[in-house]
Amino acid sequence: MTTQSPAGTTDPTAASSPRLPGLPWWQAGALGVGAAVAANLLIFGAGHLAGASMTHPDPADPGAIVDVTAGGVAIASVVPLAIGFLAAVGLSLLWTGFLRTAQITGTVLALLSTASPALLLDTDAPTRVALSLMHIALAPAVWFSLGAVRKRALARTGS
Predict the structure, then answer these.
(1) pLDDT above 90 coverage of the chain, percent
(2) CA 45, CA 54: separation in Å to the nearest integer?
(3) How far is 76 from 96, CA to CA, in rounded Å?
(4) Which of 31, 32, 42, 99 could pair covalently with 150 via S-S, beta carbons 3.0-4.6 A apart?
(5) What is the pLDDT of residues 48-60, one digit of tens each?
(6) pLDDT attached to residue 158
(7) Helix count (H) and strand count (E) of the chain?
């Protein structure tokens, strides 16, 4: 069976290789991490524009002050999201249903982690708001990236 392209040419591979919904795990992961980093860097910049000091006391060294930097924001966005995403995808090889569990758990954890900067940091309000929004920005990255992998996995199994 062949199909015709819009230009009128015949494409013999179109019928034999249907396009699966969702994304391959590596594309979903890269897009999720990239989107989270981009969103958090935008929030970081907006925080500076709003007058946030982007500093807070160092919990490990009382009396010391930590500067929040763009590099620190990028690393703090990439590391937990990438580790959690890879762990979820790896565990989904044992049980496809784990992707939904990870989707819910990861999103809830990202939202709950907002309490740390919002309630526990002794800093100015604009910095607390900016850092809290950065935690919130991870929630859709987790939800949609794992959702794309889940959609592809379910299409493969026919569920």
Answers:
(1) 77
(2) 10
(3) 28
(4) 99
(5) 999 999 999 988 8
(6) 79
(7) 5, 4
Burial classification of residue 74, based on how many CB atoms lie within 10 Å of its CB (0-12 exposed, 13-18 middle, 19 or more buried) = middle
Cβ burial 29-43 (10 Å sphere, 16+ → b, else e): beebbebbbebbbeb
Q: List C-alpha distances in Å: 63 to 8, 120, 121.
A: 72, 15, 13
Q: State how far the Cα of 86 lies from the Cα of 133, in Å rounded to an integer.
A: 24
State the number of CA atoms in the 13 A half-sphere of 77 facing the CB: 34
pLDDT at res. 16: 58
Predicted TM-score (pTM) of the model is 0.84
Domain boundaries in the chain?
Answer: 35-157
Counting every residue written for the chain, the total comes to 159
Model pLDDT for residues 91-135, shown as the tens digit of each residue: 999 999 999 999 999 999 999 999 989 888 889 999 999 999 999
User: Minimal CA–CA distance to 152: which of 22, 37, 48, 27?
Assistant: 22
Backbone angles phi, psi at 141, to 5 degrees: -65, -45
Q: What value does the mean pLDDT take over residues 46-75?
A: 94
